[in-house]
Amino acid sequence: MNLQKQLQKLSEAASALESSQARARLLRLFDDSTFVEIDRLARSGDKPAEVVAGYGTVDGCPVYAFAQDRDVNLGAIGKAQADKICKVLALAAQNGVPVVGIFDSDGAKLGEGIDAMDAIAEILRASNNISGVVPQIVVVAGACVGSAAVIAANADIVIAAKGADYYLNPGDENGTADIVAEDADAAVDKARELITLLPSNNLSMPLSFEMDNAPMLECDSISGVIEAVADSGTAVVLGDGANKTALARVNGTVCGIVAIAEQKLSDSEAARVARFVRMCDGFSLPVVTFVDCEGFASISGAAKLSHAYAEATTAKVTVIAGKAYGSAYIAVAGKSAGADVVLAWPTAVILPLAPEAAIHIFWKDRLQNLTNPVEERKKLAEEFAETEGDAVSAATKGYVTDVIAPSETKSKLTAVLDMLAGKRVSRLPKKHSNIVL
Question: I need a surface site. Which of 204, 403, 404, 413 has the fewest CB within 10 A?
C-alpha cells in the first residue's frame, strides 16, 4: 500500500471537516491549541457523523465536549452521532471531568426510523447515568427540539442563545434555560465561565481561589444581596424569577447562593430553587441562603424545597434578612431544616405565622376596643413583629447563631464557610430519597 497516497487520502478527509461551525465552537470553548478530537473520521452513511467531539482544557481544567454539526444533515441525531456522544459522556465520567454539549440540530434522523429513536434513548440514558457524577453543561446554540430537548433539559445547567429554539413539540413554548446569552458565541463563553466555578466531579474538593478581601458592597435588604457579598464579577445568576440563584465566590470560596424573596413562594419557584440546591449538594458546593419570605403558595412547593434542604449534606448557611414565617422558617431557614449556621439581620422577623394573623389569636383583647381598626391593626401587627418575632429573642433560645449588621455579612460568611470546609455527614443507607415532583 502506497503510504503517500494513504496520507493524501487522510489529509483530504480531514480537511473536509475543518471548516464546520461545530468545530469552531469547540475551538472557542477550549484553551488555544488544547482541543483533541475524538473519532474525527467517523461516518454516517456517506457523510461525516453529525457531531464533533473531543477534549481539551478550559482555563487549565480538563473538559470533554461535543458540538452538533448543523452543516451535516442539519445535525440530525442518528446512530453514528449517538455513538460519539455516548463515548464522550462515558470518558467524562471515567476521567472525572465536566462535559459540555453544544446543541444545534433539527432532531432525530428520521430516515433511520427506530434506530434513531434508540440512539437518542442511549444518549439520554448515558446522560442520566452520569448526572451528579460530573457537571453537565448544555449550550443551545441554534435548534434543540424534539427528543434532543429532553437530553438538554437533563443537564445541570442550560445556556441558550437568544432566539434559539428549545422545545419538545412544534407549537410549544420554548423551554426555560438557566442563562440566556446574546448569541451562540456568548453562550459558549458563559460555559467557559461556569467551568471555572464548578468542581470537576462529585469526589473533587470544591474549588478555592485567592481571597478577594474586598469589602462588602452596601446592602440592607435582600434585593441585590448576592452581588453585595460575592467577589466582584464572579456571580453567575441562574434562572429568572423573584428568587435568585447564583454560583459565585465569597472571598475565594465557590458556593451556591440563594435569595428567597417571593412573598409566597410559588410551586415552580420552589422547584427551581430545590433543583439548584440539589445540584450544589451533588458537587459539595456550600449553599448560602438569604430568606425574606412569608411562606409557600402550595404544599408541593413546600415539600420539594424542604426535602432538598433536609437531604443536602453540603455546608449550609442561612441568613434571615427579613421575614421568616411558619413554613418558610421550617423548610429552609432554621437549624432544624439542616442549616449548620443561622445568621440574622436585626430586621429579621421570625414567627410561626404572619403578625397580621397572629394578633387575632394572641392579642384578641387588644383588638376589641379599636377606634380606627384598619390603621390600628397595622400598628398592632408591627408591634407584635417587633416584640414577639425579633431575631435577638430567637438567638437567646439558640435558634439563631448570631445577629449581625448587614454590613458584616460577607466577613461572617467568610469565617463560617472556612470553618465548614471539612464538613462530613453520614446518612442512613438507602437507594435514594423520594422527593416530591
Answer: 204
Helix or strand or coil: residue 58?
A: strand
Calpha distance 338→262 (Å, rounded): 21
User: Mean of the pLDDT values across residues 216-225?
Assistant: 90
Distance CA 262, CA 243 (A): 6
End-to-end CA, the chain? 62
pLDDT of residue 10: 43
Pairing of strands 61-68, 43-44: unpaired
3-state SS, 104-168, equals EECCECHHHCHHHHHHHHHHHHHHHHCCCCCCEEEEEEEEEECHHHHHHHCCCEEEEECCCEEEC
What does the alpha-carbon distance between residue 138 and residue 252 come to, in Å, rounded to a whole number?
26
Radius of gyration for the alpha carbons in the chain, expressed in angstroms and rounded? 25
Burial code of 52-67, b = ≥16 C-beta within 10 A, e = fewer? bbbbbbbeebbbbbbb
Q: Identify whether the C-beta of residue 5 lies closer than 8 Å to the C-beta of residue 31.
A: no
pTM for this structure? Answer: 0.92
pLDDT in tens, 304-315: 999 999 999 999
Tell me the three state secondary structure of residue 32. coil
Those residues whose C-beta lies under 8 Å from the C-beta of residue 41, and which sit 6 or more positions away, are 13, 14, 48
DSSP-based three-state secondary structure for 101: strand
Q: Residue 61 has which C-alpha cell?
A: 481544567
Give the 3-state secondary structure percentages of the chain, helix then strand then coil, rounded to 5: 40, 25, 35
Give which of 292, 226, 232 is closest to 256, Cα–Cα: 226
| Identity at 82, one-letter amino acid code | A
Sign of torsion over alpha carbons 428, 298, 279, 340 = negative
